């Protein structure tokens, strides 16, 4: 229907690319003429951590399908964040050698609620310098007057690279982008918090001429440039990404949950406000990824405490380390007493893997914890995110999640377990200059997930040691222990 509109020259989409290979042929027939694919990493494991699902290879398949169907260039959007993916700049550019891509590096941008840290931002100049060291022949391409990207090309390469410099070099004076939200409001600047309701004017019977005057007035009020990066990070600004969910609730929603990209580049829900149980269900089931959350809280007057959690925050619980997962029901036959014999040896004392083939499948949850005593120097650098290696808490969180999934490859007699959920949380304890780690694993099957939780906590602790060892060798890993387990024939365990 859109392609039949007179004067409409381009119909484009921005997509995560997961289903693109399957859907693109029909979309192209319907009139789709331009594609932007969001992709922040070329490392499959890192991709899974960022988007909370597998699918890296599907995204790459979608990119190749778009090229096969004649889209040129296919735009690939990459938000560059220090400590996460700035080391992949050259790999992204290398894609343009044989593929007609426009790889667009986007400066990390603040939005309301994402606890934006300017130290995470890799500037256009820094990215350009990295590329020019590898490819001195990199040449700048001419750009249209209203372009929001600075384009470059390496001679002989099929594709090109671009930089969207929203933070370091604003382009507000020539930007001609207008956005209409799903609930009918006009935004003249992505970073502006002012909106004009076209919906209300339409419902009041406004003519096309009147709408043009309303739009013209809004554009006329547009500022010469958006606020500085530090001011933007403090502004209340409703992001575009999840607005349509509120149409299911009411036309003009009250306090809105906001989404943002955290220091891991992950879209996150900040909080829920006054939702009915029905709306919470819609929120959970509306295709919104439940992604890692970066929360910073203040201890005392000025000392920040940094929290990382791989699940949604709770207003009722200000601490990062949340209560254990809900208990799974015990087997109908009741819990069995603890065994007085080792289960991983046979009758002759040789090692043996336990046969769990006849055990019933139950919901299993295990929580383990660890403490890393960092010392004052390493603690301060982590707290202020000043380590040269990058964001130690984020890397440790990722390592813990990966370790849980690889437990059977690390512990010889562990069964491979299909985990349904892994949650790793870190909290800084200034009284001990320590990082407290809690790992929770869940699965449904015939064997427990205690080892997965313990491995997760231990590897997260080891990762913090690795990130900080250049600062101090006097780091102690302590208190690695099982906190609780539920499910299984032997009953539940909760450490008191």
Automatic annotation (TrEMBL):
GO molecular function, one term: cyclic pyranopterin monophosphate synthase activity
Any single biological process term in GO: Mo-molybdopterin cofactor biosynthetic process
Pfam families (alphabetical): MoaC, Mob_synth_C, Radical_SAM
Top-level taxon of origin: Eukaryota
Catalytic activity: (8S)-3',8-cyclo-7,8-dihydroguanosine 5'-triphosphate = cyclic pyranopterin phosphate + diphosphate
InterPro entries assigned to the protein according to its UniProt record, in alphabetical order: Aldolase_TIM, MoaA_twitch, MoaC, MoaC_bact/euk, MoaC_sf, MoCo_biosynth_MoaA/MoaC, Mopterin_CF_biosynth-C_dom, rSAM
Record SUPFAM superfamilies: Molybdenum cofactor biosynthesis protein C, MoaC, Radical SAM enzymes
Keyword tags: GTP-binding, Iron, Iron-sulfur, Lyase, Metal-binding, Molybdenum cofactor biosynthesis, Nucleotide-binding, S-adenosyl-L-methionine
Gene3D superfamilies linked: Aldolase class I (3.20.20.70), Molybdopterin cofactor biosynthesis C (MoaC) domain (3.30.70.640)
Biased composition (Low complexity): 323-338
PROSITE patterns assigned to the protein according to its UniProt record, in alphabetical order: RADICAL_SAM
EC class: lyase
Signal found in the keyword field: no
Stretches for region Disordered: 312-340
Domain Radical SAM core: from-to ranges: 1-158
Pathway connected to this protein: Cofactor biosynthesis; molybdopterin biosynthesis
EC number: 4.6.1.17
The name this protein goes by in its record: cyclic pyranopterin monophosphate synthase
Origin species: Cervus elaphus hippelaphus
């Amino acid at each position: 229907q859109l392609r039949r509109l007179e004067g409409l020259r381009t119909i484009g989409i921005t997509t995560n690319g997961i289903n693109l290979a399957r859907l693109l042929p029909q979309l192209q027939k319907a009139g789709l003429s331009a594609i932007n694919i969001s992709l922040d990493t070329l490392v499959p494991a890192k991709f899974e951590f960022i988007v909370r699902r597998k699918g890296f290879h599907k995204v790459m398949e979608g990119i190749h399908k778009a090229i096969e169907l004649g889209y040129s260039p296919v735009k690939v959007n990459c938000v560059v964040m220090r400590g996460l993916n700035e080391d992949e700049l050259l790999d992204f550019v290398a894609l343009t050698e044989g593929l007609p891509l426009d790889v667009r590096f986007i400066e990390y941008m603040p939005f309301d609620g994402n606890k934006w840290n300017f130290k995470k931002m890799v500037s256009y100049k820094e990215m350009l310098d990295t590329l020019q060291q590898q490819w001195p022949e990199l040449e700048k391409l001419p750009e249209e007057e209203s372009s929001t990207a600075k384009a470059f090309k390496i001679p002989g390469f099929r594709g090109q690279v671009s930089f969207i410099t929203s933070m370091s070099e604003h382009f507000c004076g020539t930007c001609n982008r207008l956005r209409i939200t799903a609930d009918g409001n006009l935004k003249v600047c992505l970073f502006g918090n002012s909106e004009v309701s076209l919906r209300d004017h339409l419902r009041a019977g406004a003519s096309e001429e009147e709408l043009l005057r309303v739009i013209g007035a809004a554009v006329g009020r547009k500022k010469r440039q958006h606020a500085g990066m530090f001011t933007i990070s403090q502004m209340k600004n409703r992001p575009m990404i999840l607005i349509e969910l509120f149409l299911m609730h009411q036309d003009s929603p009250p306090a809105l949950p906001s989404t943002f990209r955290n220091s891991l580049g992950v879209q996150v829900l900040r909080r829920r406000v006054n939702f009915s149980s029905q709306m919470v269900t819609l929120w959970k089931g509306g295709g919104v990824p439940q992604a890692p959350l970066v929360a910073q809280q203040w201890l005392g007057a000025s000392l920040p405490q940094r929290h990382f959690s791989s699940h949604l925050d709770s207003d009722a619980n200000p601490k990062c380390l949340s209560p254990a997962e809900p208990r799974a029901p015990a087997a109908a036959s009741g819990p069995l007493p603890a065994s007085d014999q080792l289960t991983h040896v046979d009758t002759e004392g040789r090692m043996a893997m336990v046969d769990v083939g006849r055990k019933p499948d139950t919901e299993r949850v295990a929580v383990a914890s660890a403490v890393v005593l960092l010392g004052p120097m390493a603690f301060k650098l982590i707290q202020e995110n000043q380590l040269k290696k990058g964001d130690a808490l984020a890397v440790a969180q990722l390592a813990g999640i990966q370790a849980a999934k690889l437990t059977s490859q690390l512990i010889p007699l562990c069964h491979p377990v299909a985990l349904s959920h892994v949650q790793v949380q870190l909290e800084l304890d200034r009284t001990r200059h320590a990082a407290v780690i809690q790992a929770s694993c869940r699965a449904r099957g015939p064997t427990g997930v205690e080892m997965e939780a313990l491995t997760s906590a231990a590897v997260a602790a080891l990762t913090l040691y690795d990130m900080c060892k250049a600062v101090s060798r006097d780091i102690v890993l302590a208190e690695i222990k099982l906190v609780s387990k539920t499910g299984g024939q032997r009953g539940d365990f909760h450490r008191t």
